[in-house]
Records
---
Amino acid sequence: AAAAWTVTWNNHPGGAPRIEEDLRPRTSGPTVQQPPAPAPAAPQMSFFQLHGSMVELLRMFSKPTGIFCCACDDDARDGVEHVSVSRVVNVMDISEVRPMLSHAAVSKAEQLSRAKDSEIDDVLFRTAPAGKVAAAWSDSWLPTCSEFWRNAEGLAEDYELSVDAGRADIFVSHSWSAPENWEVVMGKDRPYATVKSTMLAVVAKDVVLARNEALSNWREVTFWVDKACIPQDDLHLKLLCIGRIENFINRCDRICILFTWAYLERLWCVYEWACVLVHKEPKHLWLQNEMFVSDKSLPLYLDCVRYFSLKRTKCFLETDREILAKKIDSCYESRPAFEKLVKATAVALMARSMLFRAGRSARLRKQFFEPWVELATDLGFTELSAALQTCKPAEWRETASAESAQTATRTSTRSDQSMPLPTKEKLLSITTSTYHSSIESWFDEAVSPILLAIRRETVKM
């Protein structure tokens, strides 16, 4: 959720005072208790406005030599924090505030003080290994991962989960909040945080299978996750990272979107989508929603895409829409053009996701895949609709299974019950990777060109 901030700028002619100093004037004689003066009304700024102001301020300095200290008000309403920025401590030596920050944040601040402008991304970019933020249902560390995904409130130790890196395998885009009707649709025994943890484990396993690596290597796949890869205990560093999200996207090989039926209602999610569609080709975008899509949720997904519009996105402050509008206006021919690209891409990516179950039976294809073909037609994407109908999931699955059976014959003459686990894993990898490869090749050849053509029409070049 986007945070809102209440900001007060105080002018001190003699420079910024030290925090421990008592700033009240000294008088001799008995102290006369004066009634407190009414506090001036502080202007409210949205998080995006604050971000823009801070970025502009930071551009005035060639090196990060100061640290901004903020005092958070205790009260919050509507889930929005209010922060009073009342003092600025000018710290030329990072060691003066070392006790205030985590070791990783201190290290980053020191690196930035020596970095050139062209090196800032190299300093700030980090990745978290899948084994730190994802877990299968049977993994003993699943409760720890679920706790990580329970809310967006990052701690210093969350940043310690990540390490410096040049690139990442996956950029994870998601909504921290579950859909309002999550328990009604999914049930009370499937916590949103736990499902997200397990879905990312599936993503990591898909990556190693595509590389023809051992399935056990999945924990080494690298993710960019905001909570783990952005320092949460230093406002300066946090704002720098937020301002470089697009640069970070370009450093990731693929984009994984944990796509719930409410994803396109979240302003922040749509902002990330706007960035992604400009910089990444469709074949590098993956909607991870296998555990989300069911008989109950499928109609919600169809409506989510059918009725998507910028006006329907939800945010805490209406002023937060300004940053999204500015992004759309700067990168796209028009707002309706952006909405067209989002709908076309969402239909195509959802159809591809449903192919993984459509290959199991004709009934599943009709139930989960065909509605997306029909929606493409309803929305006027006739060429896309025709392309989607050229897929052959049952045939691809049969071919993958036959290849796996041939390998099994060559590998072992024993029964499946006595076959060693590594051999079973290898056979599963062959079947899954071959089937996935068939879907990817079809999508790249038949569907991606149509989406790229729509992008050329809608994105400013």
Note: The chain is about 50% helix and 10% strand.
---
Amino acid sequence: MASVPGMRRAMREECTCVEELVTIVECGKRRREELTKWVTGNLGGRNEMEVTELGNLSLQCMKARMALSYLIGAEGHFGQPPSKDAVSSPSDDLDFETNYSNYQSANSICEHEAHSIIELLSHCLANRAKEGAGGFSAATFTVKGVLFSIRCVMTDPKNRVVFATIDGARVNALLLKALGRYSLVADRKEEGIGAIMDAEAAEHAVFSLYLMSNYGFQESVCFTSFGKNKFLPENFEGENASVLTSKILSSYLDKDGNTPAGNHAAMQILLRMKYLNFSGPIDELLYPRKDYPSGNDFAFEQKLLSAAKSSYVVNKKVEGAKPKGDVFDRSIIRLRIPADCSPKGVDPKTYSSPLIAVEELSFGSKTVKHSQSIDDIAIANNIAGCAEGFAKQAYGFYWRWEDWGGDDLVDQPFLPSSVGAKSSNANQRKNNSNGKNDASKALSPPRRGLLGMLTQSNNVDEDEPFTIFGFKCGAPMCGR
């Protein structure tokens, strides 16, 4: 029932469904260590009764998690149209603050739930039942329902981090495989592949893959462990994964009936393809002590690979902005510009990183109107540049790094020289504590006041982002 849009409001507000579902998942959280060992095949030393108990608890927690994800994450989030039942605040059209915001914490998953979701998706894509403790028939879950739940779970950035830390390439490989079935062979039902995927399921897959791509960058562009993870394996059955991914995404964009959200997601992955981390064999994705997901679950079927080779697709070779080091995991404060345009910002809102802040300025934004194609990385770079002092405002807001003073900066005017001093001191402390270069180094040149910023070198790096007007610019001009 939770997957039916018309039922969600009643289930949230007119009964105790959310509270009861939360009670179930909390039972799992209290035994999270045992469940993590069980779902990864590392339990050992337990009798049959204990194994059966843990298996049944894991299954009930997964069902409750899916229902919660529909109730909490299915409406009004990034990439989703706002629901009539989840109206944004009249005073803040940009923020989709729903009337059930108090339930948002209930959508946070544990590690064992992420492993369970990966296993469930592998079974559904194979149209396979799960045997033994916590088992289910092949008809219990649908691919579309599971993909929708994954997308709803990923509306919370913290959940994406959970998937990334247990090897994000696992869920990414399954998502790409599902998308490939729709993009390459959905019209070839006689081959037995693709009949279970439709445009809606494909949108859930590609948008989830897009959200996970924020955590799969190469070490050369991501200096912290937060975003520096494997995006996908290097090869699928001997086929270069980067080439195969580009072909699947390009084929998807050529499909009729795609939603704007799906097209946006596919294009964003293509724009950052050059900087994503494709490495390691498929074998690294396996659970050594478990039969499933198997290597075949993560690999592409030969019919799918043959379809990719035989399909004529104009590969959309596009290249977006190169991400700066500070856009991944450095908290940033967004401040509204007052009506009198004074330099003191109001209504501060904190984001865990510029990449997360982009979600309210990118696709579907009611405030920022983009005249050119959107590049999320370029927007994140511009936000970071504004926080660094390269511009007074960006996209209609003031931006401040939280570690440069946090709330102390809210009521202060834009003072690049003083902010630069805070940056220098903060970086020095950080370097002294861990002996490493700070990730903000690429965006923290010596400050020389406003005049000094205007007289910096005019040489434009080829990796600098485009402005929202389509012009390539150097860092001192970004965000203006």
Note: Residues 355 and 370 are 17 Å apart (CA to CA).
